[in-house]
Write a structure and sequence with these properties.
Blueprint: H1 20-29, H2 35-46, H3 53-60, H4 64-82, E1 85-95, H5 121-133, E2 138-143, H6 151-163, E3 173-177, H7 183-191, E4 197-198, H8 206-212, H9 221-225, H10 227-233, E5 239-242, H11 250-268, E6 274-276, H12 296-309, E7 314-317, H13 323-329, E8 336-338, H14 370-379, E9 383-385, H15 389-392, H16 397-405, H17 409-428, H18 431-447, H19 452-463
Helix pairs in contact: 1-11, 2-3, 2-4, 3-11, 3-12, 4-12, 6-7, 11-12, 17-18, 17-19
The protein binds S-adenosylmethionine and iron/sulfur cluster.
Residues 104-105, 142, 144-145, 177-179, 199-200, 202, 244, 278, 280-281, 283, 320, 361-362 line the site of S-adenosylmethionine.
Length: 473
């Protein structure tokens, strides 16, 4: 599936690999590709082949007619690889002290309006109890960059989340988004049992990067670029890449994400578990006039291109975006969303929701509760998945990749999505949502090929209303 490619900067573990001139040249070499070139790249992607950077550039430059073909193909591939399911999680902000000065972020050190807070262990446990009492099973813990939030602190927070449980209410997978560490630091975090280590390069254009990261350790482009290499060396083989759209050309950023993917595959035999592509949002004391907003059409399109270029990666679309747009983008390749999100530190167990921009990193667009989001997914025929089976069964990294890229994922993931959703329905819903949810489960079960897997799934599903829990394949 992945064939190593020759680049101006060869892939070496721990070494930088982005050559902006090369990426630009690939994009500029074919500004108006022919239909046959687009169709060939699409066909290759539908055959579950990873796309080369040249093929990705072809798709990124496709004309309006061919864009339709790409969007459609992304939907087909999403269904083929992931089935009709969408993984649901929530972010939990632990602390917003920060020594960096990222121009776009409400938590930047030069923002005097930012209200700084770090949750105590009791407060973390309170947030976790509140989140898990709504049915959440997967969290991502988020931290500013500060000497206080060292690897030991992060590891303790992760352990505390796993140990905070009551009856069925428990978090089964804890991911983190935190500053990059050295290999020893990553080892400390790995030992606490994290799922995915996520960090965004923000922009892969070094000049733009320098302009928007003026001060603090984050101003070191290369240290951030090679963070995943150090994580891999420390044994964390589940990593999440991302860019913050609105600073550099979005086509360039997509090419760079694919280049980063190729680097990880070439050096470690494992690509990214997830890719994120947030657009800059309004934030405390922030002037948005210099932001080059990516239009909704381009945004949808770039997600479709990523889906085709890296078929195995989970594509994450967060509540920064409005609910309607999120609902619509699932069919173009998005496979993970957050739901019931509150960004204010301590916001889940605090008083009910109005957003207070000085207490948050940025403004949310989608403020639906988890239950409202689930209800809309069900209406759209999508199974909300709270599954954490791969992580708990050790199906991570290389194994996960082969598994997913061969299209086998739905043979485990569909049953596990059904089982975890059935448990959610029994524990956290009643009335019409409960009924409609089970209807969807029955129809998805009917669509599974007849055989042992379907029979086994049906048997386990029957046990859930009687009290059986935490069932997975
Ligand atoms: N301090 C960590 C770091 O910088 O990697 C944590 C990152 S932050 C809590 C998560 C992500 O939010 C950032 O990497 C950035 O991409 C994004 N972000 C920051 N400000 C934003 C804004 N105004 N709108 C949308 N996303 C933003
Ligand atoms: Fe700090 Fe992260 Fe915000 Fe930058 S993006 S100011 S590092 S919290």
């Amino acid at each position: 599936m992945f064939r190593p490619q020759k680049y101006s900067i060869p892939d070496r573990a721990g070494q930088p690999f982005i050559d902006p001139v090369e990426i630009r040249r690939l994009l500029d070499a074919n500004p108006a590709p022919q239909h046959s070139q687009v169709a060939a790249a699409v066909e290759s992607a539908l055959g579950l082949n990873r796309l080369s950077l040249q093929q990705t550039a072809v798709l990124l430059n496709a004309g309006p007619e061919d864009r339709r073909l790409v969007l459609e193909a992304a939907g087909t591939l999403k269904r083929r690889v992931y089935g009709d399911r969408i993984v649901v999680f929530a972010p939990l902000y632990i602390g917003n002290k920060c020594v960096n000065d990222c121009s776009y972020c409400g938590f930047r050190s030069s923002n005097p309006r930012a209200v700084r807070r770090t949750l105590s262990p009791d407060e973390i446990a309170g947030e976790v109890r509140q989140l898990s009492s709504t049915g959440q099973k997967r969290l991502i813990l988020v931290f500013g960059e500060h000497p206080l939030y060292d690897p030991g602190f992060i590891a303790s927070a992760v352990r505390l989340v796993y140990s905070t449980r009551q009856d069925h209410d428990r978090i089964n997978r804890v991911n983190i988004n935190a500053a990059p560490f050295d290999v020893d630091g990553f080892r400390t975090i790995k030992r606490a049992g994290i799922g995915t280590y996520q960090i965004f390069q923000e922009t892969y254009d070094p000049q733009v990067y320098s302009r928007i990261h003026g001060r603090g350790p984050k101003s070191d482009y290369t240290y951030r670029l090679t963070a995943m290499d150090r994580a891999m060396e420390a044994g964390i083989d589940d990593v999440g890449l991302g860019v913050l759209l609105g600073h550099a050309d979005w086509r360039f950023e997509v090419m760079a994400l694919v280049r980063h993917t190729n680097h990880l595959e070439a050096c470690y035999g494992v690509g990214p578990h997830t890719i994120s592509f947030p657009r800059v949002r309004k934030a405390s004391n922030l002037d948005l006039s210099g932001i080059d907003h990516v239009t909704d059409d381009d945004f949808r399109y770039l997600v479709a291109v990523l889906r085709l270029a890296v078929p195995y990666a989970g594509l994450i679309l967060t509540a920064r975006e409005p609910g309607q747009l999120r609902n619509g983008m699932i069919k173009y390749g998005v496979s993970q969303i957050d739901a019931g999100t509150r960004l204010e530190i301590g916001g889940y167990s605090g008083p009910a929701a109005t957003q207070q921009i000085d207490r948050e990193q940025f403004e949310l667009s989608d403020t639906r509760t988890l239950e409202q989001t689930v209800a809309e997914l069900v209406k759209a025929g999508q199974i909300p998945s709270f599954c954490t089976a791969c992580y708990r069964k050790g199906r991570t990294g290389e194994y996960f990749m082969q598994f997913a890229s061969g299209g086998h994922i739905k043979h485990y993931c569909t049953p596990n999505a059904l089982l975890s959703f059935a448990e959610y329905l029994c524990d956290y819903t009643s009335g019409p949502l409960y009924e409609k949810g089970w209807e969807l489960i029955r129809s998805e079960l009917d669509r599974m090929p007849a055989g042992a897997l379907r029979d086994n799934t049906a048997k386990k599903l029957r046990e859930i209303p009687g009290g059986a829990r935490d069932l997975f394949m």
